[in-house]
DNA sequence: ATCACTTGTGGGAGCGCTCCCACGGTACCT
DNA sequence: AGGTACCGTGGGAGCGCTCCCACAAGTGAT
């Protein structure tokens, strides 16, 4: 006779109790089997597993969350609008890395945009309700209050680019300084000397570090650093385009440019085209990120590769470790962890 | 004296009970205030709201979900890989529409990819656990088992393109047939007669309807329909490129092409370029979707605009209505709802 | 004065799980 | 033989909420 007995509120879905009855064991034992505790005999485990299969038992997440005070969910917070998110390959690669690493887990990933004030307030509320066990924070600006909010709420968090050298949160980053250096050194090797730099948003620490790398590479090679060759961008294509217009006006004799992102490089290329400058004959161009854009550009763009997917994977690993650490209320991380991954220059036809 | 009394498990967060004590009322009353019940006197409501503010009370979602048997979350399920998701403007526009409409709500949106078997199994498990109150299903293929699974689990769902004319789920779609007709009629108006069609994946109903519209438009104008001018694509740029190569080989005399998506049109354009055909002088080109790609193409692409963001908004409205309907176990929708939105041809330089 | 209804309110019961204590059984020491 | 340890197990208590019944107080018709 098919199971049609115990009708409970949740549309007749079997509960732990029913599985226990079916398997002829206690509630606790079923819970132990479900949660993979080793303290169960093989025979009992088999019996429980059979009962689970027969009844098609699926644990009730809400009940578990309430009893255990955890959610088995983490959030990937993007402090940008949806539009920027889709325009920027950085985010999609990051998401891919996180997603891949996550698929081994029972964890659920939530994607949350916090591009405007309204969304940010909503997010704050969300975090205050502790609806996630941890947070992955991507591309944060220097003055962002979010990291401090997380710290205050004692929510485990990992940040993808530290806000400063003194970042207190666990962070994963690529070697922005070294990456920028390699880009500039590459251009110097190619015989270029009047090398411009289109920076990223300077309230992003990584963008500052790239400027530092640019400066130091020039200085160490015995070249003067001319501030007229440095123009701030904002990581958008339009911004890259505008920056290059300004640069050409101020220093029409420039013979190379290093852009703080591929997207900005694409904008710069557009401007160079319109100005009749050939790439790379007249102006050599180097980007940053080595995203799909770089490979598909005409000419293909030399770029500094960041291992973004790997950064995503590492971030998740660190976050899961922090969440696990926190469970039995341990000593709590005095040791802050900062992972820095190496970059690699990928030379293509644009330089 | 600051509140430092009742330390509960959840890190000292106040509970309903504590708010009730503070406001000098019962638990039920606080619950009523929180949930906006009208059956509370103004004075009591004010007292409760004050207590909530003082204590910084935030409801515990897990407890609410357990007691009320709902999650206040819905899922947007994309039966594609992350890569396809980011490559296809359709999805991002859809997400934008849904997100905009959702921000008025307390609902949480989950983005779930189900591109491979593993992810699909995970999703099935997820749905079986009833972790969401409803599902938005985007771009489903004819043989996808997901809709039936949802029906079987009695989870409210809205689908973005019906699987067939006999779709049983509530659906939102644009007028694919009419959109295709308008594209072909436009090309005929421009004096083109040898009009090719690069189709989308034919296991997507909407793509079939576009083929129907293409055929009927030609026939009604008194032109024969030559199957050699119809080439299947797969909605990817590479597929569009390949399709155009095949078409040029079979019918080198073609003077126009209507592609089932802008992305495929971009691929076709590439092939036409390589073959030395000028757009629009030699071959006029029309796409579908009117995505950002169309505006930025060189030359700008004539395209059939679908109101994708609005589709997203409508889908969400319908889903929320279904969820609300279901709460007091009503008669249950014998009236299936199918919304069809109009398309509009946007003429640009490519035709 | 009585009844019938409405309105606002309190609080018990219960959602399905995890945590943890207690208990019987076995194994291994003294 | 008794003592000690640990293993596998059962089940009570409790997580923070919603649902709903009960009840007091008010309102108006009879």
CATH architectural label of the largest domain in chain A:
3-Layer(aba) Sandwich
Looking at how many chains there are and whether they match, the oligomeric state comes to: homodimer
- Which percent band covers the strand fraction of chain A? 15-25%
By CATH, the superfamily of the largest domain in chain A comes out as Response regulator
* End-to-end gap of chain A: 75 Å
Helical residue percent band of chain A: 40-55%
H/E element string of chain A?
HHHHEHHEHEHEEHEHEHEHEHEHEE
For the secondary structure, the number of strands of chain A is 12
Number of domains of chain A: 3
* Biggest interchain interface, per-side counts: A-B, 38 and 38 residues
The chain-level structural class of chain A is alpha/beta
Mean pLDDT of chain A: 91
Summed up, the helix count of chain A is: 14
Kindly report the spatial arrangement of strands forming the biggest sheet of chain A. Answer: 2-1-3-4-5-11
Shape of chain A: elongated
User: For this structure, what is the CATH class of the largest domain in chain A?
Assistant: Alpha Beta
Poorly predicted segments of chain A: 1-8, 328-334
CATH topology of the largest domain in chain A: Rossmann fold
Largest sheet of chain A: 6 strands, parallel
Based on CA atoms alone, the radius of gyration of chain A comes out at 26 Å
């Amino acid at each position: 006779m098919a199971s049609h007995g115990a009708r409970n509120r949740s549309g007749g879905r079997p509960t732990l109790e029913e599985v226990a009855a079916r398997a002829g064991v206690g509630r606790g034992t079923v819970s132990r089997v479900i949660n993979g505790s080793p303290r169960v005999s093989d025979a009992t485990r088999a019996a429980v597993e059979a009962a689970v299969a027969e009844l098609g038992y699926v644990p009730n997440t809400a009940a578990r969350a309430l009893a255990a005070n955890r959610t088995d969910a983490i959030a990937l917070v993007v402090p940008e609008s949806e539009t920027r998110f889709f325009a920027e390959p950085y985010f999609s690669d990051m998401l891919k890395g996180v997603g891949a690493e996550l698929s081994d887990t029972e964890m659920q990933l939530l994607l949350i945009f916090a591009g405007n004030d309204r969304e940010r307030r909503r997010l704050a509320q969300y975090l205050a309700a502790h609806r996630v066990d941890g947070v992955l924070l991507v591309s944060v600006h220097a003055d962002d209050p979010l990291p401090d909010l997380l710290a205050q709420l004692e929510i485990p968090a990992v940040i993808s680019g530290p806000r400063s050298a003194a970042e207190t949160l666990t962070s994963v980053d690529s070697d922005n300084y070294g990456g920028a250096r390699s880009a500039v050194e590459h251009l110097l090797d190619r015989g270029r000397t009047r090398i411009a730099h289109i920076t990223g948003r300077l309230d992003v620490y990584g963008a500052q570090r790239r400027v530092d790398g640019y400066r130091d590479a020039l200085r160490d090679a015995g070249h003067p650093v001319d501030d007229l060759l440095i123009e701030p961008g904002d990581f958008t294509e339009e911004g890259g385009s505008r920056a290059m217009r300004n640069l050409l006006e101020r220093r029409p004799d420039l013979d190379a440019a290093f852009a703080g992102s591929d997207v900005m490089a694409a904008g710069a290329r557009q401007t160079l085209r319109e100005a009749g400058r050939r790439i790379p004959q007249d102006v050599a161009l180097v980007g940053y990120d080595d995203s799909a854009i770089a490979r598909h550009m005409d000419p293909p763009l030399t770029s500094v590769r960041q291992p973004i997917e790997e950064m995503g994977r590492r971030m998740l690993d660190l976050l899961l470790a922090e969440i696990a650490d926190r469970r039995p209320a341990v000593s709590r991380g005095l040791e802050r962890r900062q992972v820095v991954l190496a970059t690699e220059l990928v030379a293509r036809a644009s330089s």
